[in-house]
Specification:
This protein is mainly α and 577 residues long. It has 30 helices and 2 strands. Helix content is 71%, strand content 1%. The two termini are 40 Å apart.
Length: 577
């Protein structure tokens, strides 16, 4: 593990100094840092959606959120800590895969070479460097740990191992819903573990013991885990899968799964170019992808037909691969390929690869030196590719630019890049992309974003018209907030106050501070300093470490001539900083 750690850190270590991509990582960390820095909110993680907001989401991943909360409680907001943790989790996941396959009596020397190969494989380069990708590292860690203890349970019949493998499976399930179909792996692995054990008769005896005495306990335990999962998941912020939709559109989903798997296989075998993201994958595949998959399929068929290795190994690996990857294609209207999702399927690939290599070496020992030569040639190529590939995640503008290059027709990517151009005050490009976003998917939020860019570009009349049209469809606090700003610019003071108050009224408890802050600003602009001070003082009671509140209060006290209070607020701002 030490050698593996040194190799991984030597290639991915520079990502520790990377920033955020602003695709999920900002939502999971900085935008909710006050919430995740309070350990008292840990129970809430298990009864809320993934993104800490009131919007309904199909993503329920409390263990992922817990990992960010633990880091934030101990270290505050620190991107270096988040990135370092990601690298460590990647190393641990690969090492556990090694231990799992070793427990199946796969040649450990061959496994070491293959683990290093995949540690540096460009297809997994996003796992250690993109902060939200840790979800799949965590899933791999918990599920593979569960399988390791399950095999120990098969070998010994000890209930302590039974409790442990069930515990780790529960953690995997509360990490990512992909663990649901993976439960099928447990009965299948009973046969694999038995046939490859050095003392198969002893394992068979233990298996007979388990299935005759405590199998009922296992079934009840899994049912209890599922009931708890469904009970906690079933709340106002987590959407449930639309089973009827899957049934009605099963043909579409099957086509997506087949197409997606072919793309994944091609990138694993032949990673000539590694995109950040692929979108709209339900399209004709390129010739290279078809050829690579055809060769892979024919090779696997030949190995199976000739019984070159144990057929159960092939079947198990194929089933494992499919069960681990198909849930990622079951998100309606989200035909995307993200390569960090492949880390959980690595055991299936290594199992076949290591077994085939072991067989070849036993039949043709002279091939060993050629295999080592190939490995020596591939390692620096993969290292160089992954070392450069990670730069696509170094900051938000680079990330969204690279993502747009890979998926220019994906509305979320256009939306994200538009925000980056807005942040850089390149309003012409921001408006161009915002208009394209609306053409691709004209949802309410995208119109709000477009109007905000118009406001920033000082096109107030156009922004006002769009905001007023949006209010006819739905009352939204952000719309009211920006209209209040526009009315202040147009010197319509009463309207500005009215709309700022309406924004506060409509906002959720979590969002109220920022809308109160806007109302305070409105009061300060029109000269009602006392009301502005009153609001900021109220906000400070809930957020005593907010530097901007102290700074604004200091300026307001200066405006009303209370120099002593102004100095006091300035000193508090300095002490908090």
């Amino acid at each position: 593990m030490i050698i593996l750690g040194i190799i991984v850190f030597s290639v991915y270590g520079k990502s520790i100094n990377f920033g955020l991509t602003n695709l999920d990582d900002d939502t999971l960390t900085i935008r909710n840092i006050d919430y995740i820095s309070d350990y008292r909110n840990i129970p809430d993680l298990f009864v809320n959606g993934c993104y800490f907001d009131d919007q309904i989401s199909t993503y329920y991943r409390p263990v992922l959120n817990l990992s960010f909360m633990l880091e934030s409680v101990f270290f505050g907001y620190n991107t270096k800590v988040y990135h370092t943790t990601n690298i460590l989790l990647f190393i641990i996941s690969l090492y556990l895969i090694f231990l799992f396959l070793k427990s199946l009596n796969i040649n450990s020397t061959i496994l070491k070479y293959l683990i290093i190969l995949f540690a540096l494989h460009p297809v997994l380069s996003s796992v250690p460097v993109w902060i939200p990708a840790r979800n799949d590292s965590l899933l791999t860690i918990f599920f593979i740990s569960s399988l390791i203890f399950f095999i120990d349970y098969l070998n010994t019949g000890k209930l302590s191992y039974c409790f442990t493998y069930l515990f780790f499976y529960a953690l995997a399930l509360f990490t990512k819903e992909t663990a649901l179909p993976l439960i099928i792996i447990y009965p299948i692995i009973c046969k694999i573990a038995t046939d490859r054990d050095e003392n198969p008769q002893q394992v068979r005896d233990n298996k007979t013991f388990k299935f005759s005495t405590v199998q009922f306990f296992n079934i009840i335990s899994f049912l209890a885990i599922f009931v708890l999962y469904i009970f906690l998941r079933h709340n106002d912020t987590v959407g449930n899968p639309d089973i009827l939709n899957y049934i009605k559109n099963c043909g579409t989903y099957i086509r997506l799964i087949v197409t997606g798997i072919m793309i994944y296989i091609k990138q694993i075998i032949f990673p000539d170019y590694m995109p950040v993201i692929l979108y709209n994958i339900d399209i004709p595949l390129d010739l290279r992808t078809i050829i690579v998959n055809l060769i892979a399929f024919l090779s696997l068929t030949f190995i199976y037909y000739k019984n070159f290795i144990d057929r159960k190994i092939i079947l198990f690996s194929v089933i494992f691969f499919f069960l681990a990857i198909f849930p990622t294609f079951m998100q309606p209207e989200d035909n995307t390929i993200l390569f960090h999702r492949l880390v959980i399927v690595i055991p299936s690939i290594l199992l076949i690869s290591a077994t085939v290599i072991e067989k070849v070496l036993s039949l043709y020992p002279a091939t060993k030196k050629y295999m080592i030569l190939v490995w020596v040639l591939i390692i620096p190529i993969f290292s160089y590719a992954s070392f450069n590939q990670q730069d696509k995640y170094k900051d938000s503008f680079t990330f969204w630019s690279e993502a747009y290059h890979d998926a220019p027709s994906y509305h979320i990517i256009c939306y994200g890049l538009a925000k980056e151009y807005r942040k850089n005050k390149n309003y012409a490009k921001a408006l161009e992309l915002a208009e394209k976003t609306i053409k691709l998917n004209g949802i309410y939020a995208y119109y709000i974003s477009y109007a905000i860019i118009l406001y920033d570009a000082e096109k107030y009349d156009e922004a006002e018209n769009i905001f007023l049209q949006l209010l006819q469809e739905e009352e939204n606090p952000t719309v009211y907030k920006y209209l209040s700003k526009i009315f202040i610019i147009k010197n319509q003071k009463e309207k500005a106050i009215e709309y700022a108050k309406k924004a506060v009224e409509l906002s959720s408890e979590k969002e109220k501070p920022k809308f109160y802050d806007n109302l305070s600003w409105i009061y300060s602009v029109i000269g009602q300093y006392e009301k502005s001070i009153e609001i900021l003082t109220m906000l400070l009671q809930k957020d005593k470490d907010n530097i901007s509140y102290y700074k604004n209060l200091s300026m307001l006290y200066e405006d009303i001539g209370n120099h002593q209070k102004a100095i006091e607020m300035k000193e508090k701002a300095t002490s908090v900083y």
